[in-house]
Design brief:
The chain has 454 residues and is an alpha+beta fold.
Amino acid sequence: MPSDRACLKALLLFNDCYFPIVKKPSNTRRLLPIDPSGFAMNAPTSTPTNNNRRKGLTTVAVLVLLAGAAWGVYEYVVSSHFETTDNAYVQGNLIQITPQISGTVKEIYADDTDRVQAGQPLIKLDGTDAQLALQQASANLGAVVRQVRTVFANNDTLSAQISLREADVARVQVDLERATDDLARRQKLTGSGAVSKEELQHAQSQLAAAKSQLNAAQAAVVAAREQLASNQAQTQGVNVQSHPSVLAAADKVREAYVAAHRLVLPAPVDGYVAKRVVQLGQRVAPGANLMNIVPLQQVWVDANFKEVQLRNLRLGQPVKLTADYYGSKVEFDGKVAGLGMGTGAAFALLPAQNATGNWIKVVQRVPVRIALNAEQIAKHPLRVGLSMEVSVDITNQEGGSLAEATRTQPYGMTDVLEISQQGADELVNQVVSANLGQKVKMAHSVAQPVGNKQ
């Protein structure tokens, strides 16, 4: 039997032949079996799969580089000329329908989502109270006219009183002269004893009484003249129909007439009814909001841009908009109409208190108003509050960020709330003529026409 040393050598020789030492890229050793021809078995060799993988990775890297270069070119050439935001919403006028007088709702002619036209009746109030107030004002006007007629008639009466008092003064002066003469004669006869002392005292008393009557008569003349002057001060320069008291009462009649014709609440503009809260039989007060009218043809978009986006925004810049309501297939055209005068936080009900110890900077947003194309809105109506995506072309930097010209025309106007005073004037003339006894025509009220402009 071979020795142990011979066996160990044979084992080492077999190991070196079949498991040669091959260095791996990571500096580790691995034993690979070799075939009898002396070549290592399963040695790593270059295969078509590795070549394809290398080509694929190279292609991907080239594509990534090309995409990055294309994005850079697009950012510099195209994207840098636009400011975009999706924090934008449709806004519009919410015109409140409010009564100008108090009353009870009797009829309702429109409900939510209904289309209404300017001047169309929306709500009617019960007119009993208004008619009673008109009748009371008319009766008061008639009473005032008669009182003023009395004041004018008193001028003649007071003039006659002055004449009467002056006649009394003349009569008393005659009596005074007679009493003076009687006293003088008796005083001359006193020394001869022809006139008694008692008779002399009686003559002196008559003279004193005559003087007192003269003073009283003269005071009565002065009082009558002052009373006439006071009465003439109320009538001087005017006639009955132009007297201030009559004019004030006539205006009360006109006021009651207008109130009686404000029982019907019309639609001030064309639009759609929203948020109707009024109910039949409800007692409403002046100024209470009963429903709203939304003129969808006058909507706009408020786009809330970040403050870092505002440096390049100018008035008049063109805008492209899309609405989530219609999708990207419908695109709206617009232009920048104005930039807000403050951030949303500045005008919030509870503004932020930044002078605190724990402060975190938050990027602020400023609303930018965008005017829309009226034809496009008519073709694709928008609702108030819809979300919009806005893209502003900031290439043109010629405009300003603040409006320089002032508005010369009313922003909004309606004439459906005007109430003609022709009927009120006719009623006033009728009442005054009936109580004056002759046909007259009163002057028109200063405030004409009656109504509100919006």
